[in-house]
Amino acid sequence: MLRCMSTEDDTAGRTVVRLDAVRKEYGATIALDGVSLEIRSGEAVAVMGPSGCGKSTLLNMIAGLDRPTSGTVVVDGEELGRHDEKALARLRRRRIRMIFQFFNLLDDLSVLDNVALAARLIGVPAAQARRRAVELLDELGIADRQSRYPALLSGGERQRVGVARALMNHPVLLLADEPTGALDSKAGEQVMGILMDLHRAGQTVVLVTHDRDLASRHANRLIEVADGRVVGERRLKPTQ
Amino acid sequence: MGAVWLASRAAVKRRRLQSVVIGLVVLFSTATFVVALGLLAASSAPFTNAYARGHGAHVVADFDMTAVSGAQLARAAEQPGVEAVAGPFGKAVLTITENKAGFPFGPLTVVGRADPAGPVDRLDLWAGRWATGPGEIVMNRPSGQGLVPRALGDTFQVPGGPLLTIVGFADSVSQSAGAWVSPGQIGALHPSEQQMLYRFKDSSTDAEIRSGLASVTAGLPPGALVESQSYLVLKRAFAAGPGAYVPFLMVFGVLGIVVAVLIVANVVSGAVVTGFRHIGVLKALGFTPNQVAAVYLTMISVPAIAGCALGVVLGNILAKPLLSGAFQGLDVPNAGVGRAVDVTCLLGVPVLVAVAALGPALRARGLSAVEAISAGSTPRAGRALRAQRWLAGTRLPRPISLGLGLPIVRPARVALTMAAIVLGVITVTFATGLTNTMVAYGKAQEANGAVQVTVRAADPGDGQTARRLGDSETEGLLRSLPGAVHVTAGSYADIYLGSSQTTDAEFLRGDSSTLGYLMVKGHWMNGAGQIVARSDFLHQRGLAVGDQTTLDLGGKRTQVRIVGEFLAGGFSVFCDWATLTELAPDQQATDYEIQLAPGTNTDAYIAAFTKAAGTGLNATADTNQTSVGTVVITSFASIFTLMLGLIAAMGVFNTVVLNTRERRRNLGMLKSIGMTPRQVTFMMITSMVPLGVIGGLLGLPVGIIAHRLIVPASARAAGIDMPASMMHVWHAPMLSVLALAGVLIAVLGAFIPARAAARLTVAEVLRSE
Ligand SMILES: Nc1ncnc2c1ncn2[C@@H]1O[C@H](COP(=O)(O)OP(=O)(O)O)[C@@H](O)[C@H]1O
Ligand SMILES: [Mg+2]
């Protein structure tokens, strides 16, 4: 089973993410229209809504991949708007990791190097980074694929590489943007199972999904988005 | 650094095609740089530089052994105006009667010298070794003559003397001897003269040279000086021959550099533009902007540095024969690329690549991660769809309409491809025009002063044996001998032409108009008081055709009018004989140039003349006019055109490869719905044809305009006016071929990647996303 990835002695309920009146415009398009929300440590939050309503934009704001037009984003005590690109990159390396619908693996690197690269970025020596990468790949059941290149993997395998990469540096926050969206239902179930194991082990997870069934089975809070606004919020079960 | 290196190393290794293309483009560009810079270095005042490098003698003088001793000569040379002196060396003249590669038929001047170095006339011993023992001889040959070293070991039996064996080949900028032996050996060859080599502090005009020579011969017995040669004669011969090509060769050099820079920039920015998704992923992973820029710089630098190193090697291999060919007439020692050029290229090209990569790398640095990922994966769908729909509505066959739609999808990439094609067409057009101009120039040049025999009178003022035959008798004799068609008599002098600076001039009599100097403006002299002047001279002095000015010869003055401007020649000014008669009535002609009827035996003519004229008049066959012919120039131009065309085609190839890589998924889908590989190839090539057509139509006029502007401008920079006839090098068939060059470059560049794309199986393609 997966070990708990959050090593600090979290007091459950500490605020990990706080959005305050976040607005994002792309030219004439308003992708986010004054979103405010709070996510606490140990939560598994599912974000739902129709296509094009701003879910990915929301996650990108939290990950510091893009900047809001107005409003503030605070993650793990850091106000992202105060940071330059370099500081945001540093934050992404360690504390905020993201999993993408279309994997976004580096085609030039082997599976092992894709995963190890994350640790190399924070200065872990090569041998040690590889050891940890092999451990993670093993736990995710794809250790035998480690020397392949991403192009030769199935979708489910690729997404597990994406998960391993995200977990390398023990992130405070794990973001997943439709991680099962490009997978068949069986592979999707497996990836979802892995994420929920992580959640049970104490990992804070924010998950964008279309699948209401999946969301209600696994998440402990559900946020509904439509037209760039939060239109509903439901607590499903207590935070673990 | 670990993560940056890991990511960039992987990119170099896995994007093999991109790495190879960058490497090759840099390789050929560097080779072009090396040749171009080597050329520029050699072309800047080549004669002066070569002469300074070789410590060439300003005067080579031969003294009668019986009239003066070596000690006397050495003492006489101790003058304040003398910068350096070498000699005396024993000198003998052999007559070679057999014809071997090492010993061509005819007279051979041999000098005894202990070593090839020394204060004056440092020889470039470029093959074999120096002659140190009996029977050893070193021949004077310009370096880089491929066949000559095989003549090492050739022997010649001196009648009643030693057997001489060639042990080396050396090159003398001063042309002081035909061959050298050790001082111990010269005695056995019965020397009759001793050679002195002088360098003077003041040496820029004939008058200065003359006064220098007078100072070192002042205390010597009369008749001791047998013969002397001023380096200004060599300098004039160079100016009239190979030196005349220098400005055009320089244009090629500069063009090579410019095209190479542009294509390198194009290829490098292509690598970054296609890497957007990759850049986005790196950023999402936590690479800082500087680290992303570092990955891209490293990814491009690795193949670029490898290409640069190999390019320097290739450039040196190409430059050696080209440069020694181009400057053959000069006998430039060590013609080739200097170490400075190599170092400049090894350091400069990587910097250049880095600078070219910097713009795009900074752009990569500045993109937000989200923008980068989406820019890399979703083309402007709306516009593409509209274009596709419109094309589908036309009656064109499906693969063609799909192919034509491709460029519209990616405007930035299309701009890059277009730039590569346009550059290619401009290069080919300009180079073709330049080559034709140079060929026209070369032809004019070879016709210029095309004489078969030159007769030069010995100078009694220098203590040489006086001529037996008078001036008019000499001319009469030359005209009367069978075969003579035109005879021009001349006398040179330093004159003042409305200025305190001296001017080298020759006064001409007889058939001077048949010498065929190419006129840029005006006409050749046809009456008293007229002069013609060389183009660069007029520019230097700010004079023009039609100007009236004062000609001063030895203090006597007369008014003359400049009636014509000629392109190139050994003298700055030619004057009518009548002017000389007016200023110095007793002056005789010292030089005669004879044009023979086709088929006349030159040697027989010379022999007949020498027999009738007796001493004091030396007749020689004129052969040096053809030493630098159109062949060298054409080969120079062809090599440059080929290399630049290759670089441009590779720029296109690179762009098409990138296009194809990006379109692979679409190609897979098209194949999955039943398009055949042939149709896919056809479609990919079709997608490049419009670019080729437009590129050709844009590039052709720009190339022609560039030719029209740059060629005369560079000629003007060298002080020459181009005759308009040399700019009319275009004709319809050639223009239509050049217009098609764009299509040709595009189709050739597209063919290989299109075939590769067509061969991929559908599954492979669809998986690779
Ligand atoms: N980089 C972008 N440039 C322009 N418009 C964008 C960009 N990203 C998203 N949008 C627009 O913002 C809106 C929300 O998009 P997104 O957050 O991707 O929706 P979701 O993930 O919910 O499907 C959409 O209308 C989309 O077209
Ligand atoms: Mg989305």
Question: If you had to describe this structure to a student in words, what would you say it looks like?
Answer:
The complex is a heterodimer of chains A (about 240) and B (about 775). Chain A is about 35% helix and about 25% strand. With about 240 residues, chain A is α/β, with parallel strands linked by helices. Chain A has seven helices and ten strands. Chain B is elongated. In chain B, the strands form two sheets. In chain B, strands 1, 2, 3, 4, 5, 6, 7, 8, 9 and 10 form a ten-stranded mixed β-sheet that branches. A six-stranded mixed beta barrel of chain B has the order 12-13-18-15-17-16. Chain B is built from 23 helices and 20 strands. Among the domains of chain B are: about 70-220, no CATH class; about 380-445 and about 630-769, no CATH class; about 445-620, no CATH class. In chain B, about 55% of the residues lie in helices and about 20% in strands. In chain B, a hairpin with a 5-residue loop joins strand 6 and strand 7. Classes of the chains: A alpha/beta (about 240), B alpha+beta (about 775). The interface of A and B includes residues 90, 106, 123, 126 and 152 of A. Bound molecules: adenosine-5'-diphosphate (ADP) and magnesium ion (MG). Adenosine-5'-diphosphate sits at the interface of chains A and B.
